[in-house]
Amino acid sequence: EAGVAQSPRYKIIEKRQSVAFWCNPISGHATLYWYQQILGQGPKLLIQFQNNGVVDDSQLPKDRFSAERLKGVDSTLKIQPAKLEDSAVYLCASSPRGGRGTDTQYFGPGTRLTVL
Amino acid sequence: GENVEQHPSTLSVQEGDSAVIKCTYSDSASNYFPWYKQELGKGPQLIIDIRSNVGEKKDQRIAVTLNKTAKHFSLHITETQPEDSAVYFCAATSNFGNEKLTFGTGTRLTIIP
């Protein structure tokens, strides 16, 4: 079974530029998560989708971050404009069932973003 | 919301010795506690989890204990091997509300050959 795929793996941009990340979850998984992991910290949830609906985006900085999950499968996370403090690894995860936090979450390899 | 604290932040042990990582949580409603291992350049991978209806769970060299009264849980790795070197994260979540996973700050474990 293929795991969670993410691209690109690395991205370097200058502040005020825009960037987009892509995630393809494990086939059939209903729930998709985007996390931000700042160096030396644990992952922090940005947004959670169940199928193509948003379950939780309370920690998403909506003035600059946006995310969508088309047709309940792939997802993109966008930052516009980027700030220095957005430098982090952006992790995508998926879980099989309907958004229950007690389901195992399977993580992708992440996208390392550096904002100069 | 939930707050998870994890200690120590770094841990070095001789190969073959045991390693223990401890976490505390704040939300008494939390009832699911997974542990993740993150190797360099990779995403976190679940290694073991425990639910609030049990006090201990083992899987070969890895065990997790849970004390709900004290609101803390621990990861125990016995007979450590070089491939155990990684960053380990604990997490907690509740069956209520949005069931969000809250992660600890991580422990960098180094196994000394």
Structure in words:
The complex is a heterodimer of chains A (116) and B (113). Chain A has 116 residues and is mostly beta strands. Helix content of chain A is 0%, strand content 48%. Chain A has strands spanning 5-7, 10-13, 19-24, 31-37, 44-50, 53-56, 65-69, 75-79, 88-95, 106-107, 111-115. In chain A, the strands form two sheets. In chain A, strands 2, 4, 5, 6, 9, 10 and 11 form a seven-stranded mixed β-sheet that branches. Chain A has a four-stranded antiparallel β-sheet with strand order 1-3-8-7, with no helix packed on it. In chain A, strand 7 and strand 8 (75-79) form a beta hairpin. Chain A is globular, with a radius of gyration of 13 Å. Chain B is mostly beta strands and 113 residues long. In chain B, 0% of the residues lie in helices and 58% in strands. Chain B contains no helices and eleven strands. Chain B has strands at residues 4-7, 10-14, 19-25, 30-38, 45-51, 56-59, 62-67, 72-77, 86-94, 102-103, 107-112. In chain B, strands 2, 4, 5, 9, 10 and 11 form a six-stranded mixed β-sheet that branches. In chain B, strands 1-3-8-7-6 form a five-stranded antiparallel β-sheet, with no helix packed on it. In chain B, a hairpin with a 7-residue loop joins strand 9 and strand 10. The mean pLDDT of chain B is 92. Chain A binds chain B through residues 4, 40-45, 48, 55-56, 91, 93, 99-102, 104-110, and chain B through 4, 6, 31-32, 34, 36, 41-46, 49, 51, 89, 91, 93-95, 98-101, 103-106.
